[in-house]
């Protein structure tokens, strides 16, 4: 028995997309036949269309970031499953500009293959196509695995910053390079005190022994590599910030965009407390928190957990980040610590 | 591969078009005949949908090749016969809008890329897309050279998309040796050249039986997938083997 509120589980994604399109009819259009969501008012200055997508269950990613100043289109798959290559192809065809289209792909095998097949087909049709691979999760960094780090919270920041750069009229190669640089300067880490509820069984995807938490979870209900004993938020944040600072090789003068992201089942009360601890710990290291995002941006259904993403930014990246955007899930007033 | 085509000597685009039509129909008949065995293989190392996806892709291909024409002379329900036409049966060329050598390969490309789920199916679509392009561009010359260029292009596209190398226990393990065999083939007879590619592909399949997956679905199983050939690699070997006529059973080819 499912605990989810749905007419029928297989219809949940389609029903939600129809509702989303209704809620934001002034901003986006849902193409039900071809399976993509499209921005209605992209800047006329864009020379490259931006397309992302991935499995559903991570809302508001990616549909909430379709809009003016961010994505031109997003392709949703079923829950935790990649979209089909023909969805990506149809979306890319419809938003490609004079300098082609850029695909923003989170690093999962299914997404890589389906976006990759679409890229081959676009090239075959003579549409220039680039790719930014988002792989920011430090917990999945492993020498033995050929699959590499997972893509998580950095997707939101990359979509925002590249959107502003595309509005500036930058070309495909320039955007591809900027995207790769942004990913290289972003790292994330996630923890959970309870798994998401499986839509199919209504049971937790995994159960944790009392007094433990999972350190380094993904966004598809996969177990983490490490199980830790429950500890104070301060001690937990200290471990997370240490891992992220090491991965980013943070220096004393680093200026950071900090995303404290709920995974779907954690309170704002907790998330703001996380932000405070993270900012204090960064301050101790001499790094400065210059921009903040706190809330549910990339979820894993109703997982009781959060992730922290740090992006080491320079002036140009901050200028692009601060440019106005009108996408349904981008905050009207994103957090700034200084004027 | 035994020589099943003792037909009068024919050359030129018409003979090549006849060949590619029989090849694709033969592959469709092969997929239908071996679906159960492919499913059993895939259930051991994947999610069990490979045989079903292969059959679905080829049935969609045959539908694209024989569109309903509204011609009163054609009996209804003729479009897809599960067993497929016997090898050597001329394709229903009059009804098809395009009887060029590239047409059946282009139809397979569209069918596999647009209508098949999973990951292996659309990757077959990329191979067919490159084959169709190469045959369209080079079909008037040596058919073997055109097929070799198409398979080489398909292998490159599949590797760009999936990042798999030989030895990762994926369909690349069969496609890479097949591409090499075709490039080295000295015959102009496409059936004979693809027969040589088939031999090389089956040797690659047997290598996957012994290896551990690093890519694709089977990579989640590690050593538990050892002893089972990769279903995608088997599908590639069947594609080349079907150029010599439909395959009716997988078992003799896996030993």
UniProtKB/TrEMBL annotation, chain A:
SUPFAM superfamilies in the record = DAK1/DegV-like
- Determine if Cell membrane is one of this entry's keywords: no
Q: Pfam families in the record, alphabetically?
A: Dak1
GO MF, one term, reads:
kinase activity
What InterPro entries does the entry give?
DhaK_dom (IPR004006), Dihydroxyacetone_Kinase (IPR050861)
- The yes or no answer to whether the keyword Transmembrane is present is no
Which residues belong to any copy of the DhaK domain?
Answer: 8-330
**Alphabetical keyword list:** Kinase, Transferase
What's the protein here called? Dihydroxyacetone kinase subunit DhaK
Q: Which domain of life is it from?
A: Bacteria
From TrEMBL, chain B:
Does this UniProt record's set of keywords contain Kinase? yes
What name does this protein carry? DAK2 domain-containing protein
- PROSITE patterns per UniProt: DHAL
Q: What is the superkingdom listed in this entry's lineage?
A: Bacteria
Q: Which residues cross the membrane?
A: none
Q: Provide the species name.
A: Actinacidiphila epipremni
Output compositional bias ranges, type Low complexity: 77-87
Question: Per the database record, which ranges form the DhaL domain?
Answer: 18-245
């Amino acid at each position: 028995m499912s605990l989810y509120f749905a007419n029928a589980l297989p219809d949940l994604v389609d029903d939600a997309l129809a509702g989303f399109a209704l809620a934001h009819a002034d901003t986006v259009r849902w193409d039900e036949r071809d399976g993509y969501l499209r921005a209605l008012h992209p800047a006329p200055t864009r020379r490259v269309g931006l397309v992302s997508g991935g499995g559903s269950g991570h809302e508001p990613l990616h549909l909430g970031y379709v809009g003016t100043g961010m994505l031109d289109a997003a392709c949703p798959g079923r829950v935790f499953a990649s979209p089909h290559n023909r969805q990506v192809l149809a979306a890319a065809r419809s938003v490609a500009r004079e300098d082609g289209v850029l695909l923003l792909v989170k690093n999962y095998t299914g997404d890589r293959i389906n976006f990759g097949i679409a890229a081959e087909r676009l090239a075959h049709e003579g549409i220039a196509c680039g790719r930014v691979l988002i792989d920011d999760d430090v917990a999945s960094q492993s020498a033995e695995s050929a699959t590499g780090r997972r893509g998580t919270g950095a997707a939101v920041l990359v979509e925002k910053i590249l959107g502003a750069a595309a509005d500036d009229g930058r070309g495909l190669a320039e955007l591809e390079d900027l995207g790769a640089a942004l990913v290289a300067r972003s790292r994330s880490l996630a923890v959970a005190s309870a798994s998401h509820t499986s839509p199919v069984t209504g049971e937790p995807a995994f159960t944790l022994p009392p007094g433990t938490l999972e350190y380094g979870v993904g966004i598809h209900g996969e177990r983490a590599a490490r199980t830790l004993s429950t500890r104070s938020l301060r001690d937990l944040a200290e471990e997370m910030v240490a891992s992220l600072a090491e991965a980013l090789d943070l220096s004393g003068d680093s200026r950071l965009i900090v995303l404290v992201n709920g995974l779907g089942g954690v309170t704002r009360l907790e998330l703001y407390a996380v932000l405070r601890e993270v900012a204090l710990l960064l301050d101790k290291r001499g790094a400065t928190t210059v921009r903040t995002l706190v809330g549910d941006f990339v979820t894993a259904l109703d997982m009781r957990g959060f992730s922290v993403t740090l992006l080491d930014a320079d002036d140009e990246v901050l200028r692009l980040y601060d440019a106005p955007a009108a996408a349904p899930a981008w905050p009207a007033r994103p957090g700034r610590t200084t004027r | 591969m035994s020589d099943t085509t003792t037909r009068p000597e024919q050359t030129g685009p018409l003979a090549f078009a006849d060949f590619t039509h029989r090849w694709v129909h033969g592959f469709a008949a092969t997929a239908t005949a071996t679906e159960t065995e492919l499913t059993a293989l895939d259930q051991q190392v994947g999610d069990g949908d490979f045989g079903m996806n292969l059959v679905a892709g080829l049935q969609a291909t045959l539908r694209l090749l024989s569109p309903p024409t509204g011609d009163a002379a054609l009996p209804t329900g003729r479009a897809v016969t599960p067993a497929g036409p016997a090898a050597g049966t001329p394709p229903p060329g009059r009804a098809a809008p395009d009887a060029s050598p590239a047409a059946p390969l282009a139809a397979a490309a569209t069918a596999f890329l647009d209508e098949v789920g999973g990951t292996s199916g659309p990757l077959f679509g990329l191979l067919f897309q490159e084959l169709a392009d190469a045959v369209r561009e080079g079909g008037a010359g040596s058919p073997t050279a055109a097929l070799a260029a198409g398979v080489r292009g398909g292998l490159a596209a599949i590797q760009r998309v999936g990042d798999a190398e030989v030895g990762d226990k994926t369909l690349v393990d069969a496609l890479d040796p097949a591409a090499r065999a075709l490039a080295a083939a000295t015959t102009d007879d496409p059936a004979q050249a693809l027969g040589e590619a088939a031999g090389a592909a089956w040797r690659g399949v047997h290598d996957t039986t012994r290896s551990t997956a690093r890519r694709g679905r089977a990579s989640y199983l590690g050593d538990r997938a050892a002893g089972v050939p990769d279903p995608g690699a088997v599908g590639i070997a069947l594609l080349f083997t079907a150029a010599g006529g439909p395959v009716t059973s997988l078992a003799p080819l896996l030993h």
